[in-house]
Amino acid sequence: MLFNSIDFAIFLPIVFVLYWFVAQRNLKLQNALIVVASYVFYGWWDWRFLSLIIFSTVVDYLVGQKLRTEQESSKRKILLWTSIFVNLGFLGFFKYYNFFLENFVDAFSLFGIQINSRSLNIILPVGISFYTFQTLSYTIDVYKKKLEPTQDFMAFSAFVCFFPQLVAGPIERATNLLPQFYKKRTFIYDKAVDGMRQILWGLFKKVVIADNCGEFANQIFNNSADMNGSTLVLGAIFFTFQIYGDFSGYSDIAIGTSRLFGFDLKQNFATPYFSRDIAEFWRRWHISLSTWFRDYLYIPLGGSKGGTWMKVRNTFAIFLVSGFWHGANWTFIIWGALNALYFLPLLLTNNNRKNLGVVAEGKLFPSVKELFAILSTFALTVFAWIFFRAENVGQAFGYIRGIFSETLFEYPFFNNRSNSINIIILICFLLCVEWLGRTNQFAIENLKNKPKLIRRIFYFLILFILLIYGNYKGEVEFIYFQF
User: Fold this and answer.
1) I need a labelling partner for 115 at 20 to 30 A (CA). Which of 209, 392, 424, 456 fits?
2) 326, 331, 359, 389: which is the annotated catalytic residue?
3) Does 265 or 483 have the greater pLDDT score?
C-alpha cells in the first residue's frame, strides 16, 4: 500500500478511529491492532511475503528470550549468529542470489570456462532491507546487554512490523521504539496536528517534487545517448531532487503518521543538500541507516581509532556495504566507493567532524565561504547520483562522457522542456522553505508558532500546489521500495 494512494487515504482514518475510539483503554489491544493493520498494509502488496516478516519476528523473539537466561559466552554467540544467519540469509537470497550467480559465471568465462547456470525469477520483498536491519538491531543490542529482551510478543511484533516505517524506514532501534509499545498512549491534539503538518510536507515533496522530477530524469537517463551535455547535467539534477523528495518525503509521512498514533520516530533527514562537506552530508542523509552502519559495522571494525590503514579500510568497508545494501548492481558499489573517496581526505586530515552545527545558524544568508562549500558538496553529490541512477556501469560512464563533451554549453533540449520550468521554480520554493526551517525536525515545524492566518495561507498554498502540480499519473512507487 502506497502513502500516495487512495487505498491509504481510506486505510489510515479507519485504523486511526479503531485505535483511539475502540482500543484506547487497552494497551494490548492497541498493539494487536497495530500488528493487524501493519500486516494488512504490507499484505496489500503481496500477502505471501508476510510469512518472512512473521518468521523473522518469531526467530528474533525466541533468540532474545534465550539470551535472557544464557550466560555462557559461546552459546550466546551461537544465538546471535543464528539471528544474523536467518535475517541476512533471507536478505541475501531474495536480493543478491542472481547477482552473485551472474558474476560467478562471468568470472569463470574470463578464463574460457563456460558454466551453465540458471538464474531464478525472484521477486524482491518490499522493505526487506529495512525490517531486517531493524530486527537485527534488537538481537545485537540484547546480545550486548544494552537492551532487556522483551517478554511481550505482541509488542515485539508491533515493533518489527509498525506500518508507517515498515517498508522504507526510518530504521528504528529497538532501544527507541520498542519501549514505546509498553507505555499507555493518550491522544495529544498538538502532537497529532504536528503529524498532519509533517505528512502534508512529505506529500508535497513526493507528489510534486519527486514524481515530477522523476518524469524528466527518466526521460533524460533513458535517452542519454541522444542528449547534449547540458541536458544530461539537468537530468542528474532532476534525479538529485527526485531521490531527495521521494525518500525524505516518505520519511516525513512515516514520522507524521506515527505521531498520529502517539509514537516518536527518529529524524531521518536534516536538509542534507545544505551540507558543507561530504561528512556532514552523511550525518544528514538517511540518518537511520548511516548511524546503523556506524554503530554495528564501523565501530566494531575499530572505527577511526587505529592507524591510517585501518581508517581507510573501515571507511571503504562502511561505504561499500552501504552501496551494496541499496541494490545488487555494480553501480551501487561504485557509488559507495566514490563517496568513500570523497570522505577519506576529511577523515585523514581530521576534518570529518568540522561542520557539526547548522549552516549559517542564526543568520538569514550563508557567507560566501559557506555558499561555496554547499555548492561544491552538492556538485559532488550530483555526480555520485549518476552511478546510483544508471542502469549499469556502461551507461553511467557514457552519461559522464556526454556531460564532459563539447555539447556541455549547448541549450538543454528534451520533451516538455517548458513544463520543467514550473518544476524548477517549485524546487526553488522547496529549497527556500527548507532553508528557513533548517534548524527544525522538519521544514515547516515552526509554522505552529506562527499566527493562525499565516498558517492557513501556507496550508492552502501547499494544497493548491498539490492540486495543480501534483503528479497523479498513476500511483508512483517510492524509490526505496526496491531496496
Assistant:
1) 392
2) 326
3) 265
